[in-house]
Amino acid sequence: MTHTLPVRRPLDTFGTGVLVLLCLCWSLQQIFLKLAAHDVSPTLQLGLRSLIAAAVLGIVVLRREGRKILADGTLGAGLLVGAAFAAEFLLVGLSLERTTASHSIVFLYTAPIFTALGMHATRPEERLSRWQWLGIAVAFAGIALAFLTKESKAPTGAGPSLTGDLLALAAGAAWGLSTVLIRNTRLSEAAADKTLFYQLLVAGVILYAWHLASHDPAPSWTPMAYASLAYLVVVICLISYLTWFWMLRSYLATQMSVLAFLAPILGVIFGALILHEPLEPPFVAGSALTLVGIVLVVRARN
Asked: pTM score, two decimals?
């Protein structure tokens, strides 16, 4: 019997609606983290959400694979990818303590640039085209423009800062690295929930250990803190991530990847509306230029 790959169809009305909802969910992640930051540090929130979600996914994977859970040889790659995933969210947590949610989400979403560069270096069939190099140049020009935003005189974390922005950019690089590692290891053939389990488990352990070693203030479990944690675990980790993986098996990746950049745009809007974050002209112009460059890279790659 000949094995045929599943046919992925263009985004229809249903698929577009689901993807817009996913972007809405992702755009609010930094908002919730920031709203609860005075009660529970962003790093601890991310660590706890990862551990709780990993426990749920671990049960699912264990029930499916049983004693053969490590037989596919993915453990080493899983630990490596998990470390990159942990670095991403550690940097996100630290950035949110030093800059605005809107700055954090825009610089985090530079990940496709670093993915494209990593794949160019590791996979001959994914060498960058002229259009992709142009997109990378445009995106980095946008990043440089966004960095022209003046340092805020507001308390640490209340306004934008170069340090916080650089941490968020580094988080985007770590996200890109984790994608490259998945594509170049045994995890490229593993089930999506198993890959996500590795990422969440390792990230949860590392982030919680970081919290214990960093002497952060003891968490205050207010209603807002509980709401943020519930949102991060249920909506982000268990619903949105698994829905995204399902959509990747059903729809064209090109269209999905481009439309997904609605998330940072919504993040900037919600940061202004909910957190009353300033929208500095250099940052807005630089963000727009960065997103244009990323779209060029993504469309050319797919």
From this structure: 0.87
